[in-house]
Amino acid sequence: MEKEWGSLHKRCSCGDVMPMKLRTVIYSNKVEIDNVPIYSCTSCNRSEVFPEVKPDLTGLISTLGAFPVKQTYLFNEWNEWAKLLVEAYHDQKHSDPAMMRRLTEERIDMLLDLFAVAQASGDEDWTADIHKRLAQLSRSLLQYG
Ligand SMILES: [Zn+2]
Predict the structure, then answer these.
(1) Ligand 1 centroid to 18 CA: how many Å?
(2) 55 CA → ligand 1 middle, Å
(3) Max CA pair span of the chain
(4) Cα–Cα distance, 27 to 63 (Å, whole number)
């Protein structure tokens, strides 16, 4: 499964463009991680995990251990920005970077409200979870400049 974003891309070392796609990463021939944002060169096939999501991907992989059982993960359930990309893809809003930026900012606003509620409730796990999502979204905002 590959989905392509015309608006999010970078330049490959071979000189061609690398559009960003949501792709499946296979780990240890057993574990499938779907919907990972990856830059792929259309000429030389070089690919690169989107830098802002790399910490979450390596974090997920590190929980699998050396001999993982066959299983499938949805990366969009681990990374808030990948989640936003999948939603935007379904709504056909992804082709417009300004729209993606606005969606990301709206989601940050919503999470900030929720963060205040979580902190007030004294639920540390919940607070930490929202804090993690906010950090993921803030990292992804950097790409819009
Ligand atoms: Zn290339």
Answers:
(1) 7
(2) 24
(3) 52
(4) 12
